[in-house]
Amino acid sequence: MEEKKRTVTRVEDGEKVRKTAKKTTEAVETAEQEVKKVKKVETLSKPEEKSKAITLRIVSAILWVAAIACEVLAILCLFKALRLPGLSQMWWMIIFIVVDLICCIVAALLWKKASHLDPFKKTNNKVGFFILTQLGVIMAAICFLPLIILVLTSKDKLDKKSKIIVTVVAIVALLIAGLIGADFNPISAEEKAAAEQSITGDVFWTTFGHKYHAYEDCHTIANSASVYSGSVTAAIDNGCSELCYYCAKRAEKEDSLALDGLNIEEGVAETAGE
Hints:
- By secondary structure, the protein is mainly α.
- The chain has 2 domains: 46-181, no CATH class; 188-254, no CATH class.
- The protein is 58% helix and 5% strand.
- It has 9 helices and 5 strands; from the N terminus they run H-E-H-H-H-H-H-H-E-E-E-H-E-H.
- The strands form 2 sheets. Strands 1-4-2 form a 3-stranded mixed β-sheet. Strands 3-5 form a two-stranded parallel sheet.
- Helix 3 (89-117) packs parallel to helix 6.
- The protein is elongated and about 70 Å long.
- The relative contact order is 0.12.
């Protein structure tokens, strides 16, 4: 048998130990980073969900009332029934419009959060379900459309330049509030119940994604900066409304999930950073 050639490399005292230690440290740090990448999210109990949802809806209602009040103040400024010092009529109207917008945005976000914590029922009440889930858009229209109509139809209340500026600002505010207020991925109480019954293990989701994933190695979240894990209830509470299409197909092949009743929709895959 031919003797294997052996290469001997000279190593200074302590060098091997230091390199091994460095590699070990790097391996531990890498492992820790991988563990930190997936953050565990606790699940709220049903009473906690309902209580939090009620609180959020009350705050939303208060903010929408404040938004309407700002709209009324802007209208009073338009008709010069309210004269405030320091700034021109136009600038006071813009300030009230901006505050109106802020109140509308925060109220809509809180309302959507509440709609995932304690969803509305959809069975035999599709119109009511639509109105309640899209209340952010409806309130945006209420908080800005009357003002826009009055500004456009009023005569001699604002000079031409101020009228154009106020109208543009109000229309932009309406569009922003409407887009943010719209719930493009609403979930019903029935769909949430079906998901909770079908999926007992942990699911995974990203910061801005609206899908939850049955598999941590799903390619649609492979490059995401941060991934959260928890029960499907926790995923829905945090804004997810449907099971990833690819995870559903994989589960169907593996026969690992009962997909009946689940909200599954093929959409744009989530990308890194979500």
